[in-house]
Amino acid sequence: MPEPSNPLDPEQGPIAPGGGYGGGFDLAAADAQTLEKKPGHDQESGGPAGKPRSLWSDAWRDLRRNPIFIISALIILFLVFISLWPGTIATQDPLNANLAKSQAGPEAGHPFGFDQQGRDVYTRVVYGARASVTVGVCATAGVVLLGSVLGGLAGFFGGWWDAILSRISDVFFGIPVILGGLVFLSVVSNSTVWPVVGFMVLLGWPQIARIARGSVITARQNDYVQAARALGAGNSRMLLRHIAPNAVAPVIVVGTIALGTYIALEATLSYLGVGLKPPTVSWGIDISDASTQIRNAPHMLLWPAGALSITVLAFIMLGDAVRDALDPKLR
Amino acid sequence: MATSAEMTPVPEGAGAQQSGPLLDVRDLHVEFRTREGVAKAVNGVNYSVNAGETLAVLGESGSGKSVTAQAVMGILDTPPGYVTGGQVLFQGQDLLRMSGEERRKVRGARMAMVFQDALSSLNPVLSVGEQLGEMFRVHRGMSRKDSRAKAVELMDRVRIPAAAERVRQYPHQFSGGMRQRVMIAMAMALEPDLIIADEPTTALDVTVQAQVMDLLAELQREYNMGLILITHDLGVVADVADKIAVMYAGRIIETSPVHDIYRAPAHPYTRGLLDSIPRLDQKGRELYAIKGLPPNLLHIPPGCAFHPRCPRAQQVCRTDVPPLYQVSTVRASACHFWKETLDDAGTDQN
Amino acid sequence: MGRYVIRRLLQMIPVFIGSTFLIFFMVYALGDPVSALFGDRAPDPATAAQIRHDLYLDHSLGAQYLHYMKNIFTGDFGTAFSGESVIDLMKHAFPVTIRLTIVAILFEIVIGIAFGVITGMKRGKPVDTGVLLLTLVVISVPTFVTGYVLQYIFGVQLKWTASSVSPSAPFNELILPGLVLALVSLAYVTRLTRTSIAENTRADYVRTAVAKGLPRRRVITRHLLRNSLIPVVTFIGTDIGALMGGAIVTERIFNIHGVGYNLYQGILRNNSPTVVGFVTVLVLVFLVANLLVDLLYAVLDPRIRYA
């Protein structure tokens, strides 16, 4: 078992901007103390044959040995698979209702039993993955794209652009997510996933923007970036070649974890009746339906809730493992 | 003024106090159990300090000099660090066989430590006065008010100006030199018999270094304390130390009175260290540097640990660990070829 | 310090205006409050126009917003479509939610910090690994799932608590809902405390404290905890605002008639004055809580000086 994970910071709370990810190897400053405690960590010892260890190859080597990473990655691959081809493991129709079987328990061919309207719970759990994964992936892609572009530019150019952007992101931080979702989606909602995705991008981008901004500012202050600037490197070259690679690691980590939380958020909004709407098959809707029947038929709640929890857990654990691998502190 | 010996409980076998050295470290072994393997940081270190004497422990990063001090002080990070053998006799008592609580009472009161980086070694959120006063409150059971007065007195003693006002300030409000004075004041608070100073001036400006070093030496004389000065800076050593122990790869490889070692080192490693000091009379000449890197403590070379970097290495050095040869009544060297090294130094002088 | 507070208060103004306007825009411009009044029936155009005029809805959105804010600062939050004044609704709802938030914060402080300290000091031990995995699970399982599961276990199966809360919502009935509301933050507090403790146990000043011969207890409480808890305290502070706004799900599960319940009903029924009024107060609470946390930070950490 590798050294246990170093924790996930609260998203809305103290994530140190860029701290500890990009270029954080402070070996030069390592005092006698750390060297005496950590012998054999001399990076310079790589002779002509020795390939210098990079942040990424180091991280990858760690990840391959981390059982948490492997388990969560397998779960995620499986989820992606069933959301693309749910028919391969569930042969029935998720909308096929048989009222005679309402709330019935498990039987042959229906391992999870039936829901209120007599639909097969197993099939609905399998088909529900698609909505969750779609929302999660699309929302994360949008948030990461918008957030890192806006945040990166704010960090790079500073000044007015930065001040305005900071105030705007303050506005979005000031609105509680579920509350904002209720208000927004109760007025702009249709039966597709796009309003939900759009809302998440709208409220989610400042989180990534702050991180991107922070790591760009940190990276800018690095000596080699200053040197590149002194040598006359242009803005675009600086951004792409020197600064972007440093900002990528924290954005990936937070993005992965955020993907999990977006899936949970979609389910929560669907549960509150403003997210996805039937006939879309969504775990959140099924949990909401089941919640009124919890005394009579707890199995209706158990299976979609379990699937949802495992999915979110897989993404959060993956992000956590990647964070550990990329963050050389606390090893 | 009461001496510390009267104030601290007299240990068993206190009769040995008068005859033996103040601190006698015997065959100390420390290892770090890490994910990569077991690093042998200290491999059989022996040294002793008498009251009023200054021992300089010299060595590169990773030589085990700080780890030895931490083991003596009882502040080793465990895990990963473990003392695996040896004795630390302090005033005749083996510290390693004391209970945790007995040992705690020795720390701070009878032996104290000055750390390298005063900014990070002082608690950033407590005022300097609270941190100094804490010594009196914990070890002497003084009231908050009395300990505050003691703190001001201490700050005066280490010549911090306007002590009465600055006692309320926090470490970050002090300059580097003043902060190190606070550290020294804290170590001096209970007038201990032994002070271990781990690179006390390394983090300071050159001009301030001398002042801090002078203060330390002055206080040592005043209270007749033993002082262990851990450093990698030969320049600091020459002025204040009585004797020197040079460490390499967790071993002492040379011990000597301070002046002899400058005149004629008896170990090629010491020789290399001395040669790599820039000197005014050798301007223009290329500066000497010991080739190679300090050994990886996970894989210490067999034989003499220094042999891969030693200009004098022979076959025997690769296989046999050199014992500490007695060079004279007061000197020792762990080199198979100490005689040759010593002779070279004689001929090379001019 | 004084100048810093003034600057921060000034900075809060655009954020306050931005947040409230955003909500105002969504409720009044994207939704249609008047048609909501009539439910499914088609309103008579003349009546609808009259209502619009009465509610100041026949002006431009900007004018409506200004009109609304002017009223708010004279203490008039308007009247809900049900006929009750929004202020009266708040008088009933806020005490309930504040009680719920207090219970939740207490859980965070007591359980979260305790777990964090234990795991931070026993890093790598089974108890650490176990608690860490537990926090990941707690963070991953959405509140509405844990809420129903705990309600089912404690309310339905064990019958330790009532499964729904009575309208007066006394503290003893809010214990389980408070725990549910706190759970995710509690997991964060645990992890944050753990990291902070773990980082600080290796700090030089802790080593100094040991070298001073302080008893272990004093090293931990006075040096280690005093420093490690600074980020934790600030997190819990900012969480107050978030918890009050985030109680919608918890209040729905346990049928608690607090802020979240009123908001939820208001949104579903398109009851615009209720929604905008409650949100405005929540935004204010959130902003003030953040400011207080920043000031608290300066008190706890003397290195931070606001000028």
UniProtKB/TrEMBL annotation, chain A:
Bias (Gly residues): 16-25
Main localization category: membrane
Gene3D superfamilies for the chain: MetI-like
Transmembrane intervals: 68-85, 133-156, 168-187, 247-265, 301-322
Record protein name field: ABC transporter permease
Biased composition (Basic and acidic residues): 34-44
Location of the ABC transmembrane type-1 domain: 129-319
Subcellular localization: Cell membrane
Keywords: Cell membrane, Membrane, Transmembrane, Transmembrane helix, Transport
Pfam families: BPD_transp_1, OppC_N
Family the entry assigns: Belongs to the binding-protein-dependent transport system permease family.
Membrane topology: Multi-pass membrane protein
Disordered, as annotated region: 1-54
Domain of life assignment: Bacteria
Keyword DNA repair assigned: no
Organism this protein belongs to: Actinacidiphila polyblastidii
Annotated PROSITE patterns: ABC_TM1 (PS50928)
UniProtKB/TrEMBL annotation, chain C:
Xref: SUPFAM superfamilies: MetI-like
Membrane topology classification: Multi-pass membrane protein
Record has Zinc-finger as a keyword: no
Domain ABC transmembrane type-1, first and last residues per copy: 94-297
CDD domains in alphabetical order: TM_PBP2
Superkingdom of origin: Bacteria
InterPro entries: BPD_transp_1_N, MetI-like, MetI-like_sf
Family statement: Belongs to the binding-protein-dependent transport system permease family.
The keyword Transmembrane helix is annotated on this UniProt entry: yes
Source organism of this protein record: Actinacidiphila polyblastidii
Protein name: ABC transporter permease
